[in-house]
Design brief:
The chain has 17 helices and no strands. It has 353 residues and is mostly helical.
Length: 353
């Protein structure tokens, strides 16, 4: 035997995990399982049937793995937040990238290999540098001017500005004009105007009921006065839609309301540490929809956009578990209903079924 028999207390309940390239944070999970089972691993490698003491995890190697775990852990925190499906996630993108960029800052040691710098430290520094460059390519920022350091993609910045928890973040809009400019860009991209009177807009968009012409006997023909009184009067909004919807007063009033909403919103104080953990963004805008009527309409459209494809990938995974080889004859309608039930089962109380 190359090592002493381990104590039962040294055996952990978790098993070794394997790296899965298609699963987020699987490398971190694998490294944690190695450190957690290092005593068991060394004992196993030291047994007679293996005779592989040269594969023992040495202290320097364990320290390097621990340093790598510490570096990767913030990535897990941010990806876990952004892949959620029960809360808005688009506002997390800018602050998450900023947080990860801080983790990629080089240590005090120079990025050169020397006798004072171990190979493990040098390798970690190179990894940080490469990850930082990858983040900069994926989420580019302005390099000069007043917007230096801010994301080029204004949608990310606009979404962050609709999250009151990030009011102190540098990506948060600080004045009304740039806020409106971001909203206009978002409005143009989705082809929706937030400056049309909502009541008038709904009446214009709703088509009138179809009129069915029936042949009636001559004996049942009514007089013109009776026909006019019994027929349905055309909708005023539809009759004059071409001229009413373009009245400048409606747009001016909506824009003025939006400016007032943004001014009040920007005047809010920064949330406290307690508020950061308690505020639920969707509920916050729902409660304040009467305080910021126009701004809340924009928030509803914007923050409903998910930041990652993880929620939709879960739906595909659920579908794969339902449509198996033994259930390949399920119709598409039934598959849709099964997936819907599986996705929303968490909201159903079993006692009510």
């Amino acid at each position: 035997m190359y090592c002493n028999r381990i104590n039962p207390s040294d055996i952990v309940s978790t098993s070794l995990k394997k790296l899965v390239p298609t699963r987020w944070n699987s490398c971190l999970t694998m490294l944690k399982s190695i450190i957690g089972n290092k005593i068991v691993i060394n004992d196993l490698l030291g047994q007679d049937q293996f005779e592989s003491p040269h594969l023992f995890l040495r202290k320097q190697e364990c320290d390097a793995i621990v340093n790598l775990i510490n570096f990767l852990h913030p990535f897990k925190i941010q990806t876990d937040l952004m892949q959620g499906e029960l809360y808005p996630t688009l506002s997390f993108v800018c602050p998450a990238v900023q947080q990860l960029m801080l983790c990629c800052q080089p240590d005090n040691a120079p990025l050169v290999s020397s006798f004072q710098t171990t190979h493990q430290d040098y390798g970690l520094s190179i990894l940080k540098s490469n990850v930082k460059k990858a983040l900069q390519r994926r989420f580019p920022v302005h390099q000069s001017g007043n917007s230096k350091g801010l994301p080029i993609n204004e949608f990310y910045r606009l979404a962050t500005s609709f999250d009151i928890r990030f009011k102190s973040n540098k990506a948060f809009y600080t004045n009304v004009d740039e806020f409106i400019e971001g909203i206009n860009e978002f409005s143009n991209s989705i082809g929706t105007s937030f400056f049309v009177d909502e009541r008038l807009d709904e009446s214009v968009l709703v088509d009138p009921p179809e009129t069915v012409t029936l042949e009636v006997p001559s004996s049942t023909i009514v007089t013109p006065s009776e026909s006019e009184s019994s027929s349905k009067k055309p909708k005023f909004s539809r009759a004059f839609a071409g001229v009413v919807t373009t009245l400048p007063s409606l747009k001016t009033n909506s824009e003025k309301q939006l400016r007032d909403d943004i001014a009040k919103y920007l005047a809010l104080p920064n949330p406290s540490i307690k508020d950061l953990d308690e505020i639920q963004l969707g509920n916050w805008w729902f409660r304040n929809r009467d305080v910021y009527p126009v701004l809340a309409k924009v928030a509803k459209r914007l923050i409903s956009i998910v930041a990652t494809s993880a929620p939709s990938e879960r739906v595909f995974s659920t579908g794969g578990n339902i449509v198996t080889q033994k259930r390949s004859r399920l119709t598409s309608t039934n598959v849709d209903m099964y997936i819907f039930l599986a996705a929303n089962s968490r909201f159903v109380n079993p006692t009510d079924m």
